[in-house]
Amino acid sequence: MTEAYPTIAQCAVVAAAFKVLLFPAKSTDFEVHRNWLAITNSLPPWEWYYEKTSEWTLDYPPFFAHFEWILSQVAKLADPAMLRVYNLEYDSWQTTYFQRLTVIATELVLVYALQLFIESSHGATRRAAQAAAISVLLSPGLLIIDHIHFQYNGAMYGILILSLVLARQRGGLLASGLVFAALLCMKHIYLYLAPAYFVYLLRTYCLSPKSIFRIQFLNCLKLASGIVAIFGLAFGPFAAKGQIPQMLSRLFPFSRGLCHAYWAPNLWALYSFADRIMISVAPRLGLPIKMEAVNSVTRGLVGDTAFAVLPEVTPRMCFALTLLFQAIPLVKLFVRPSWDTFIGSVTLCGYASFLFGWHVHEKAILLVIIPFSLIALKDRRHLSAFRPLAVSGHVSLFPLLFTPAEFPIKIVYTIFWLILFLMVFDRMAPASNWPRFFLFDRFAILYITVSIPLILYCSLLHQVIFGKSYEFLPLMFMSSYSAVGVVGSWIGFMVVYFTS
Amino acid sequence: MASASPSPHKPRRKTKKTITHFANNLRPEPLVRSPAFPLAAFLWPARSSLSQWEVLPLILMVVGLFRWAAGLWGYSGLHKPPIFGDYEAQRHWMEITTQLPISQWYFHDLQWWGLDYPPLTAYHSWLLGKIGSYIDPTWFALYTSRGFDDPILKVFMRATVIVSEYLIYIPAMVVFVRRFSRLFGVAQWTASVALVAILMQPATILIDHVHFQYNTVMLGFVVASMSSLVAARYMWASIFFVAALGFKQMALYYAPAVFAFLLGSCTFPRFNTGRFFGIAAVTLASFAVLILPLVVGALFDASRGIDSRPDLDGPRAPLPIFAFLGTYLDTEAFYYPVVEQMVQLIHRVFPFARGLFEDKVANFWCAANVVIKLRHYPTELLQRISLLATLGSIAPPCAIVFFKPNKGLLPYAFGATAWGFFLFSYQVHEKSVLLPLLPMTVLLAGKQGLGKDMRSWVGFANILGVWTMFPLLQRVGLRVPYAVLTLLWAYLLGLPPTSTSAYFQEGQSKSVQWATALLHGAFYLAMAVWHVVERFVDPPFDKPDLWVVANVGIGFAGFALCYLWCLWKLVEESGIASQMLRGSGKTKVKTR
């Protein structure tokens, strides 16, 4: 088997060149990480989770704080002024260059993990794996969030993929679990995927492959002690000081509203949309309208989202729904624990948490897209569920960037990625043993076609027609449209998952 | 091509037809197992795809993304009062063309970036200015908008460069690459690789999209003209070339080659009167159309009583050049404003009065100035020597294309004449190196264009060219985009400093390979060392320009080498050398 081209390394080089050119792009999250560099560098760990000079307080778990501390040791050499807590909004060119470079450098973890992923695939699937790996590496989501908006998702998802790939061989199961535990101590959003890990490791590592009633005690001990050690390392020192409640209040800010500022495209966005429509329909049906909610809900701002007609949603309900829809696929994983099923259930856990979660940020869609990419090329049925997700997930990220200078980049890059990879995937995905479902395919094509006029309207025409008024309208259209795509692809994938 | 031609006794015409037919449909893929350089690797999966239309949109999106991302960086003159830079010049022209009557365009406040480009630039500025004023009238308000650095305005200006390029340069280049590669039976996939390489050329991106100018409009017209020459559409070629000249006078660098080629194609094998007069008429007509708005505008403004120089009272000012005309012409006659307008246009566009060279440019004069101080010599003498040297350097390539008007030779001829002008003419700017680089770079689409030999020379010229512009770029803080775009291009094409794979190919004489490798290696080493020294060592106190002068010296030597290479390839490819060796004019002339 000859090597397929281009290689991951070649793509990484060209992508890095492009990312360096994006250095001057304006960013809002830039200050967040500068502040964290300053906090971890200049304060003892006991004050990390209490410090609140800046509004961007540290709200990631301890390993991420340590990661920032390591970066800050290098940052000293670049420009020590960025490491002062009171130096708010400080952005000398050294600071910018340094911070942007750290994102590119730490993304090497992702490159390495993807290379491992390709090497772990054999035979005919290898070229497909390479295409999928390149699609993740060049993902517009990572480009927009990390290299323009500014975050370290590349490194985090690199660790996630590393852990997923390690789980592919029996020998790597323990390492996979431990890497995932460490990842949880870096960014707690991955807790949403933890149920899939729990079931998979329980079934394949802690129980005998032959019978679920034979427990492998040694393996259980290894895994448990490893995980306890990792969590102990991360949280132990803070627990010893009695800071855990304070830390938890930072990590899980339940005081925030149901929908995030820009309406992540999940079920609650559709719910809000339906509520908006009900406002005009309700009088005819004789339903009561809460007048105080009519004005607030339209903006969808952070804070309590109130519904005018439909019943309120509580965090408890969100939590229950999430758990319920996570549990369904896990049953199959427990019965048939193959790696493909594992990735599928990780994807479905991501879906459930994204669709039903409380205060979901639209960035969380990567939690679905990236694991799904690894199995999207398994056959055509997987691909047909992946397609609407790829479109809606990336389109829903558009509102993150709003300055005109970055506008063409996000649009052209996303369209480029969609055309390239949907074309390539379409050629590579093998036919399925199962008949495809006719309607779903048509739905997907129609859906993708609608995106073009919608993007045009939301990004250009709306401003031309209405100017600054009705600003919520494009946001609502965009998130409702994306929500339809995400929900549709979720249902489609559920069917594929349970029938294959 | 020889392999494709059938038995020799068939009539010539028919043979040609078969070849074209063959070349169009059944072009065999080269049997290569792995890509020779990274750019080929990126297009590797596209080898099997039959349609260019699947690959082309993706290519155009990627090169567009790199252009726009590079444009996020600063432009020339950003936050540099009092005079700012090229960006302000272009913005100011949009301001004066939209705010002033047409007869004042070439006269208005010449101290502040007075308009000194030919009329098409002025019309282009007018159009962009109109569109921009529709978005925000303050961008181009008279006087008050000078040095305006609104970020939204920057986005608008960057967008105008990209849109202009995508309307002119890129379609022209796509068509040219298609036609030129077919001329040599190059496979479609290979031509796509060449297209990306040409469009990612760092020098054009850095000058147009980062430093800020509209060179690609002029270069696009030149490419369109070359492409029409390749397609044997001589009149279209003339129209496009006049458009290039009308956008930027710098296109004159190519004029002798265009002229010689057109004249040659009218003269050989026998004089073609129809074609000759057709070309002449079309050229004159396009010049007339070009200046028509200016002429009509001058007459119209004069009839409305609008003076071209409202700042002056009293009698009309004498003509800036050709002052003798004043004694023959009646300054009150109805045609006088037109004469004044035309004289002023020529005066602005061709600054005869300025010195031999302005800044530090890697040409002969600047390099020679290090050894002998040129300012001790009278200007007239220098101008005469410069003229003679330029003519001497462009005469051989022009003579060759005149006697052998062979389409395949066009880029070499354009390259050699442009290098001749760049090296020896006066009033050359660093940025003018784009002109000789363009024809050299398009060679990638030609015969053996992506072979190691061609790649190494085209790459050498481009990297050296962009390196000589480094002082210009770093003055406005553009080290990073310079490094990224240059290294990326070198990486994509497998060139030093990222790889040495472009040297040492099989089937070429060892001595030539070693000579090329050593020669280029010496230059690459010099460039690398120069960068290190420039960054970390301060120049001696009494010679603050030492590093720039070193840059100019090395650049001049390398460019002279490129000139000689173009000339040599021209001689080699035209078959003149072998013809002379055989001592008879009976050798078969290449038909294509």
TrEMBL record, chain A:
Biological process (GO), any one: protein N-linked glycosylation
Subcellular location field: Endoplasmic reticulum membrane
Higher taxonomy: Eukaryota, Fungi, Dikarya, Ascomycota, Pezizomycotina
Any one Pfam family match given in the protein's UniProt record, by short name: Alg6_Alg8
Provenance organism: Anthostomella pinea
Keyword ATP-binding on entry: no
Membrane topology per record: Multi-pass membrane protein
Protein name: Alpha-1,3-glucosyltransferase
Record EC number: 2.4.1.-
Automatic annotation (TrEMBL), chain B:
Keywords: Endoplasmic reticulum, Glycosyltransferase, Membrane, Transferase, Transmembrane, Transmembrane helix
EC identifiers of the protein: 2.4.1.-
Protein name: Alpha-1,3-glucosyltransferase
Keyword Transferase: yes
Presence of keyword Nucleotide-binding: no
Pfam families from the UniProt entry: Alg6_Alg8 (PF03155)
Pathway: Protein modification; protein glycosylation
Membrane topology: Multi-pass membrane protein
Molecular function GO labels: dolichyl pyrophosphate Man9GlcNAc2 alpha-1,3-glucosyltransferase activity
Uppermost EC category: transferase
Coarse class of the protein's main subcellular location: endoplasmic reticulum
Family from the record: Belongs to the ALG6/ALG8 glucosyltransferase family.
GO cellular component terms, A-Z: endoplasmic reticulum membrane
Subcellular location(s) per record: Endoplasmic reticulum membrane
InterPro entries listed in its UniProt record: Glyco_trans_ALG6/ALG8
Segments crossing the lipid bilayer: 55-75, 155-177, 189-207, 219-244, 277-300, 385-403, 409-426, 456-473, 480-499, 511-533, 545-571
